[in-house]
Amino acid sequence: MVFTQHFCAACGSEHIRRNGSAGGHAKYQCKGCGHQARFTPAAVAKALQYAQVDELLGERNSQRSIARVTGISRVTIASRIKKSASGFAGAPALAPQKGPEKGVGSAGAG
Ligand SMILES: [Zn+2]
Q: How many CB atoms lie under 10 A from the CB of residue 93?
């Protein structure tokens, strides 16, 4: 899950309000401590998440475990593996893996 709720970077308070804009991005000010900042745009937050996915993939974690940890869809992770397959040195990019089909749609173990 990606939450769009903003928090103060200085004190962690959620009592913040818009306070003008800078560089095309909204500025926010904390009511609690007065800390003022531009909050991380969604694209940057997503890039950070993807960086975490790449890191976990490097540690040979399963797609499902990565999906659980990062909250990113397993399908998205799978497509990232395809895109970055040429980049990974050790990964068998062109090996035709025809393993047993696992239930994709079913939400089983929880
Ligand atoms: Zn604050």
A: 13
Distance CA 38, CA 59 (A): 33
What is the model's pLDDT at position 34?
A: 87
Q: Which residues contact 35 (CB under 8 A, 6 or more apart)?
A: 8, 9, 10, 11, 29
The single residue listed with the structure tokens 């990232």 is: 80
Query: Ligand 1 centroid vs 34 CA: distance in angstroms?
Result: 6
Distance 8 CA to ligand 1 centre (A): 5
Q: Where does the pLDDT of residue 102 fall: very low under 50, low under 70, confident under 90, or very high at 90 and above? A: low
Distance 36 CA to ligand 1 centre (A): 8
CA of 4 to the centre of ligand 1 (A): 17
63 or 90: whose pLDDT is higher? Answer: 63
d(CA 58, CA 66): 11
- For the chain, the average pLDDT equals 75
